Amino acid sequence: MARPRKQTYPLETYLNGNKDGDISNNADTQRKPAWKAIINGLIVTILTDDYIPPIILAEEDNSQLDIVDGGSRTAAFMMYRYGNYKITSSVENSLISYKKKVKDENGNIIWEDATFDIKGKTYDQLPEELKKKFNAYQIETVIHENCDKNRIATYIKRYNEHSSMNTNQKAFTYIDKFANRIRKMMDSRFFLECNVYSDNDNEKGVVERIIVETIMCMNHFEAWTKEAKRLFKYINDNATENEFDILEKNLHRLENIITDDIKDIFNKKDSFIFLTVFDRFTKLGVSDTKFADFLREFKTNYRGNRRNRNGLIFDEIKQSSSTKAKQVITDKLELIDALMNEFLDNAGEDCSSVNVEKFIVENLDIDVDEFSDDLEDYNDTLDKLLDNTVKIGSKLLDKQNRLSLLAMMIYSYKEDKDLDKWMADYASKNNTYFVDQKRNFLHMKNDFEQYIKKCA
Fold it and tell me: What is the reported pLDDT for 331?
């Protein structure tokens, strides 16, 4: 293995490389940069031309450079140069000495001793002389060549052994296979707006762990472990791209229904549990707005009053002070599932164990990908159709009949045919249905096809 090479950049060149993407501060398994605590001191160091240790880079075969060690320093440089960051009042040694360029009475350039207090100042408020000094500062780097994702992850673990990486940040270095997916998911609106995570949580690897816990709880709960390193390694070895696809779709659906009054349910402790519950909810064929309604009822009523079979309310369920023990999670999921099913049942929704997607696939002979993303829209359209065509009190509106009606709605889209006139005609002649929903669907489908022929 070749020794790493050393290279020095003017800070302006180094930061341009970051802006252009030639140097990435988002290596898949790298922890999220934590720059706030160090930025004041770094800017003073640069403007006084003091020493900053080398930044460690890994070079891929395509010449892409990834930051292995020095991500927080780089983020601090970028935030001051381009992020309009003001040096705070807590900065030490804020008076910076420099040579100020002036002209004498004859128009000749002379250099005078001057000082400038950077406290409360952004980069744009610096004197031109200090801007030039900032841009010209020489950043030392050490570059490891011919690196792939696995080697980069190895270097990140190695170089951060001396630093204060916490448990979550260390665990993230063991999920190189899906690290890039997780990074992109963290930028979704759900993780930016639909929760109550603190800035410190975002910097300390909490969101990364929530995503991994959710994938584990949704798909691999039989192998659950509360130990972070084992959790991340298991998902790296056993998860699939499709599992991440499903979670990503769920997050986008939640973005449309989570409002400020219920987003505090998604905290760093319970988020993965409620994300798992929502995944189960999506298989019931009920409008997503009902899930938001349930969360409101859970927050205002169920959470503090309803007890499980052991006599415990939700926040009392724990084991030896641990909230991540497998039995604790099992008990919480059982309680929430029971409360949700009760809520939906009282609201007139069918929350039976029938798998809506499986029913549609089997009876319409289509792939689940052809309709799953639009299931909520199909339910909303069906509600409008029934409101306009079926009389209140008709047995056709029974929740037990919902599945076959939903199948008819999806079938009509598949065949590009309108249901409105047929449904009005069908409802005028029928006030009952077959309990066997497959039989009922086939009966309605045949009636619809005969109606289309008659009207042709």
Answer: 93
Q: Which of residues 294, 328, 346 is at a domain's end?
A: 346
The number of CA neighbours under 13 Å toward the Cβ of 441 is: 20
pLDDT of residue 153: 85
323 lies in the same domain as 436: no
**Is there a domain that residue 172 lies in?**
no
CA distance 217 to 70: 34
Quote the mean pLDDT of the chain.
89
* C-alpha to C-alpha distance for 161 and 331, rounded to whole angstroms: 37
Domain total of the chain = 3
Residues 281 and 419 reside in one and the same domain: no
pLDDT at 309 over 90: no
How many residues does the structure list for the chain? 456
> Residue 397's domain spans which residues?
356-455
Do 192 and 329 lie in one domain? The reply is yes
CB 388 within 8 A of CB 427: no
Determine if the pTM surpasses 0.85.
no
Amino acid at 202: N
How is residue 305 written in tokens? 């009053």
Same-domain check for residues 185 and 157: no
Is residue 134 a contact partner of residue 11, using CB atoms and an 8 Å limit? yes
Using DSSP bridges, classify how beta strands 65-69 and 55-60 pair: parallel, antiparallel or unpaired: antiparallel
Q: Are residues 85 and 202 in the same domain?
A: no
Interval 205-256: pLDDT, tens: 899 999 999 999 999 999 999 999 999 999 999 999 999 999 999 999 999 9
